[in-house]
Design goal:
The structure is a homodimer.
Chain A (H helix, E strand, L loop, with lengths): L5 E6 L7 H15 L4 E5 L4 H4 L3 E3 L5 H8 L15 H14 L1 E8 L1 H16 L5 E6 L15 H20 L7 E6 L6 H5 L13 E3 L7 H15 L2 E6 L12 E6 L2 E6 L2 H13 L3 E5 L3 H4 L6 H19 L5 E4 L2 E4 L15 E2 L4 E2 L1 H11 L13
Parallel strand pairs in A: 1-2, 1-4, 4-5, 6-8, 6-11, 7-8
Antiparallel strand pairs in A: 2-3, 9-10, 12-13, 14-15
């Protein structure tokens, strides 16, 4: 075994339900390789290199790796610390001193930028360490790959939750008519769109799906809701959290005054829109933010996604062994980190029907195998 | 077959993930009995009798009954219409005209009151119709039975969601320290308490559990959070939505001024408390309301609960056949409707440790078999 043959791993960015699957895939592959002198985790992204907080993962048992695989959120901890130039050099020095021959960083587009910078600094310092990234995101906003690990599990939760809430509202429609459900995805509509997979029949909820990429004209929105209410007797509308109006102003940022003076209160797009439905259409409406459960709920992960995340970790380790450097690596492809870092893959026009305010059937066909089979509901209709 | 041997069924109150299991259990038992001339559903509780909106369920196939069993929320629709004296008489006349020999009403403590009244009016009018209730609730606030159908499934969702969110926050604790999670249960703490089943180890989240039955002194709360933060480096606290302060004032009802004048804005207990944690303790805190998903998410129901709900429906039908009247009937017991109607079973003192702000181990032992096995997480600790 070579001296510089230790593997270091870190995680960063927002948690997902399967980010630890990628970690487990890396550890298992490294253990199986027989050429790695030690496997170490940095705590809280690169902060772990600055604070010298590391943990030895070399001898995790098969059972521990299996449990890790099914544990949501970043087991090594995440970080929002903004690395300075000198921090990178300090991190590289620490990793070199520890005998790190390989470094793998699991994260989203921000993390890929940090990863790229680390690789550059290590090269400048003449430190021989392969640095690669492993993708993770719930938003599916990473460019270059069709779907990133983490997205399909969050998408599955969103589709299941919207389906359940659709049945919930349908059963209450004599006294409550409209529900505005808010998903994650500050800049991109992939998760909001996933809610459409709740539909078994064309009349099923969600009746309207709005994406952050498409500016929302409030009057059009109210007309849409009114129309759907007339058609179905109740309306489930889904919005991405980053919705903006036609002036580019975030929807759901209101001015309130209290004893401390005027201040903006961010009530969120769904709450703001449900208030408008109440005041302008006179319908009983409630908002529902699916919240952080949608990125962490490990009980209903997409099995495809969980395995994909694991295989991405494995592939990244194996590619590092083959000498790949400075790349984001997934199960069946890779890209230079600098072609990924900080870039955003928005939801494409061809997957959205602007007239119906619905993802297209092509989107359904694309997403369905990724999230796995959905439950069937039995609806009792008055007129059969 | 007798002329008056038709069975009518209605549902009311808030939806649950398994209320349709009880409906399925009734239908299957009635089909199997061979003595029922027809099985009908009233739409939207007793409103269906007033508006003459009924649906024939006599010939539902086995497959349809199976699908119904796993469809969340009230398939027949719920109602919040307050029945007047004359409405009851009109409903009884309609049911009599339809040939109803038996009426089963699935619902909570409010519905049991309506059910009792219907039975009285039918008797006064000399209409021979057995009227019985079938329990359902997510709150577990029905008196007389150890656990009501619906509770364990909502409890399982709460425990799973809090467990996932605990891992989520733990992985972010370098930049976010406190999460206040709000559960349903306006007057009772059964669901808030269920979150404690997320714990595998004593140090696991939720670190603090507050119940609506116990008035909350804000300063004590802040001290609790501070103490837990010092101990664990992050804090997950769970509150029931109906939390009150020591003066009996609902927590989370604030006064705001906007252009329309002063108005109370109900931000909810969790949002209010997370703001206090931010302003008074200087920690980064977020609130998270588990919302309506907790009562409707059918993907993770307690298998015990689902079967229990089905068997309650079956038992209620069979007891009606045996001539029982005016009772709330479940799988292994029954009570007169008037001993249940409108009453609330609060969370008992002996299940709560006031010092630790935690449900007791006796509560864990009681609830664990009801919600079924929970996932195991693998936590990586810095100091092992």
């Amino acid at each position: 075994m070579q001296k510089q043959n230790k593997l270091f791993i870190a995680q960063s960015g927002g948690p997902t339900a399967v980010i630890n699957s990628s970690l487990a895939g890396i550890i298992a592959a490294a253990q199986n390789s027989g050429v790695i002198a030690g496997i170490y985790g940095l705590f809280n992204g690169l902060e772990g290199a600055l604070k010298e907080e590391i943990v030895d993962l070399t001898h995790l048992s098969r059972q521990e790796i299996q449990l890790l695989r099914h544990t949501p959120a970043a087991a090594l901890g995440g970080s929002r610390y903004i690395m300075k130039e000198e921090d990178y050099r300090q991190a590289v020095r620490f990793l070199e001193k520890q005998g790190a021959g390989h470094f793998l960083f699991i994260g989203g587009n921000g993390t890929m930028g940090t990863c790229h910078k680390l690789k550059q600094v290590a090269e400048e310092m003449g430190v021989a360490m392969t640095v690669n990234g492993v993708p993770k995101t719930i938003d599916n906003d990473l460019v270059g790959l069709d779907h990133a690990p983490g997205y399909a599990s969050a998408a599955r939760y969103v589709a299941l939750a919207v389906k359940a809430q659709g049945a919930d509202l349908r059963s209450m429609r004599t006294f409550e008519q409209v529900r505005i459900i808010e998903t994650m995805g500050r800049a991109v509509g992939w998760l909001a769109a996933a809610s459409a997979l709740a539909q078994e029949h064309p009349e099923d909820p969600p009746h309207l799906v709005y994406l952050p990429e498409v500016p929302l004209a409030i009057n059009d929105f109210l007309e849409d809701v009114q129309k759907m209410y007339r058609r179905h007797g109740y309306v489930v509308a889904v919005v991405g959290e980053g919705m903006k109006d036609v002036n580019g102003h975030p929807i759901g940022c209101e001015q309130f005054q209290n004893e401390e003076g005027t201040r903006p209160v961010i009530v969120g797009a769904s709450e703001h829109l449900s208030k408008l439905v109440k005041s302008r259409l006179g319908l009983v409406a409630r908002s529902q933010n699916l919240g952080m459960t949608q990125r962490s709920f490990s009980e209903c992960v997409s099995l495809f996604d969980e395995e994909f995340a694991y295989e991405c970790g494995r592939a990244a380790f194996l590619a590092s062994m083959e000498g790949k450097k400075g790349r984001m690596i997934w199960q069946d492809g890779d890209l230079p980190l600098k072609k990924v870092a900080g870039l955003v893959q928005t939801y494409p026009n061809y997957f959205y029907d602007m007239g119906k305010k619905q993802p297209t059937s092509a989107f359904h066909q694309w997403l369905s195998p990724l999230i796995g089979s959905m439950p069937s509901y039995f609806n009792i209709h008055l007129k059969d």
